[in-house]
Structures are given as C-alpha cells and as structure tokens.
Amino acid sequence: VGTDHAFSFIQNLAKEAHTHRIRTSPIELIIGPSIGYQGHGTAPQTFQSGAEWVKGALL
Asked: What is d(CA 9, CA 19) in angstroms, rounded to the nearest whole number?
C-alpha cells in the first residue's frame, strides 16, 4: 500500500462520514515501521493487532 493511497482512503472515509453528519467517526490510520529487506516487511504483532481489531469490530 502506498502512503499517498492510504492517506487518500482515510480522507475519503472522513469526508463520507461528514456528509452523513458523523462528526466523531471511528476512523484512524495507524502507521508502523517497516522492517526487513529495504523496509518491505511488517512485524508479526502488526498483523496480530489488525486481526484483533477486525475481530472486535465484527463481534
């Protein structure tokens, strides 16, 4: 995912929420450090945190 695309996606979500009069929408962008060869890796705990968030959102 490119950084510009990620920022654009979050901005579009926030704009859409605003059109529906949602002023304090639960939208957040969490950027963690890249690891590994040329920074093209992600720590396992990042995936775990994401999975836990999705689980909480669905249940």
From this structure: 15
